[in-house]
Amino acid sequence: MGDRLWLKLMGTFALVIVVGVAVTVILARQGAASQVTHVMLGPQMIDPAELQAALEAYYVQHNGWEGLDAALNGLAPGGASNGMMGGMMGAFDGRIRVIDAQGAVVADSAGVPGGMAERPPAGQAWPLFAGDRQVGTLTIDGAMMNMSVAQGDALLAGVTRAVLTAALAAALVALLLGGLLVRRITRPLAQLNRASRRIAAGDLAARVPVHGQDEIGQLAETFNRMAGSLQNQETLRRRLAADIAHELRTPLTGIQGTIEALQDGVFALTPDSLNPVHEQVLLLNRLVADLRTLSLAEAGHLPLEMAPVNLYQTARRQVELFQPQALAQGVRLTLDGPEEPPEILADEQRLAQALGNLLGNALRHTPAGGRVTVQVGGDDVAVRLAVIDTGEGIAPEDVPQIFERFYRPDGSRSRQTGGSGLGLAIARRLVEAHEGRIRAQSPPSGAERGSAFYVEIPRPG
Fold first, then answer.
1. Which residues lie below 8 Å from residue 322, measured CB to CB, with a gap of 6+?
2. Residue 374's beta-bridge partner residues?
3. Residue 311 main-chain phi, psi, to 5 deg
4. Measured between alpha carbons, how far apart are the two ends of the chain, in Å?
């Protein structure tokens, strides 16, 4: 891909350069040829044919040549500007004379008119007519005008060669610089193409080097971020599949064992013998429901019923709901904050679910004699909620991953110590669905142990 693109771009550069050289040579030759046939009169470069027509018009208008010498410099109609070519080709001022029908000089650009004119050189005289009658002769003498046809052709050939040589040298330099520029552009693109093919083949570890901070460098950075995201998503997908398989295996194994025991007659078929099966089925239903909620939230398709919510009242109901569990564990569960904090626009059921997950996590990791505190507050900008416990805390290396699916800080796969690993992930997604933020800190500020989860949900602007 890179070589083909390089060849195409270089071919385009070469075509543009060839056209440029050709146009330059043609225009330079035409300009030089035009200047050879012109003559300098004062500051102007004049075409003899135009001057011839102007002199004939002067004669007709004045019915003679009277006053022509004084008016000669002003007769050139729209002469070519004395630019670079004029300075080069018309560097030799010509002598212009007008001779009447009797051979007397009536105007002379190089001196005072008068006297009889000698015969002009061949090819340097232009007859002047008034109607069908010749009334005079225009003569031009000078280095350029005295040039022979062969000398003029040689001059044009020399100018053409000089311009062509300069144009070809410039073209060669431009082609070399263009090749370097094109290579600099196509090399990163070729690397991107090869890396894209590797990713398409399943090698998600493919990356490209970043050259500079221009648009191509930014494209390379974006590609690397995209590849990293794909690799991370693939890792999460595989981990999720393994975690789901593990989470389903435990209750299914329990159900299978109970049923086989009933089939073998180890247990009698009674309501009590079916209780373990019923508990495992409830666990499976809860796990499936959590996975569905998490999937909808991550995809941004979680339905929210937005309404004004008093977060303190929502927290109070959740604290009352978890109070029996806290008492059974010997943990003190309290609620702090104003009873009328600023209202927010939210789905109260989803916020209650998020808070319930945070409380369940705090109680699970707080031993007897500990304390779990729910704090509610806010201002005109946002409403804030915190769940702070005095439990075992979270290791620093685990804090950044605590909200990942199926992640258990203690590395255990046991629900007695680590839960299903979905509660905090669901809590984060539910808070983010309300455009809020959630973070963990362990230990909390001013404490020696424990952990804290802080939630902030913005108020409507």
1. 333, 356, 359, 360, 363
2. 335, 387
3. -65, -30
4. 52
In this structure, which amino acid lies at residue 123? G
Chain centre to alpha carbon of residue 320? 53
Residue type, 118: E
Whether the CB-CB separation of 337 and 312 falls below 8 Å is answered with yes
As a whole number of angstroms, the distance between CA 393 and CA 240 comes to 25
Contacts of 80 (CB under 8 A, 6+ apart): 34, 35, 38, 44, 45, 46, 47, 86
H/E element holding 39?
strand 39-41
3-state secondary structure of 134: strand
Q: Torsion over CA of 194, 200, 203 and 205, rounded to 10 degrees?
A: 70
Amino acid at 150: A
Q: What angle do CA 389, 391, 395 make, to 5 degrees?
A: 105
Model confidence pLDDT, tens digit, residues 82-126: 433 344 344 345 678 889 888 888 888 777 777 777 665 544 788
pLDDT (tens digit, 9 = 90+) per residue, 34-68? Answer: 555 555 445 556 677 788 888 888 888 888 888 88
Which two tokens mark 252?
A: 């299914």
* Token output for 211: 């050259």
Q: Parallel, antiparallel, or unpaired for β 451-458 and 437-441?
A: antiparallel
231 closest CA partner among 267, 260, 251, 206:
206
CB atoms within 10 A of CB 301: 9
The candidate with the shortest Cα–Cα distance to 126, out of 93, 152, 97, is 97
Whether omega for the bond prior to residue 209 falls within 30 degrees of 0, making it cis, is no
SS3 38: coil
State the DSSP code for 449: S
Query: Following DSSP, what letter does each residue of 152-219 receive, concatenated?
Result: HHHHHHHHHHHHHHHHHHHHHHHHHHHHHHHHHHHHHHHHHHHHHHHHHTT-TT------SSSHHHHH
Q: Which residue carries 């001022």 as its tokens?
A: 93
Neighbours of 277 (CB within 10 A): 17
Model pTM score: 0.49
Task: Give 313's contacts (C-beta < 8 A, 6+ positions apart).
Answer: 339
Q: Which two tokens stand for residue 213?
A: 């901070």
| CA angle, 307 then 309 then 314, to 5° | 135
Handedness of CA 170, 171, 175, 178 (dihedral sign): positive
Helix (H) or strand (E) holding 371: strand 371-378
pLDDT the model gives residue 156: 65
Pairing of strands 371-378, 332-336: parallel
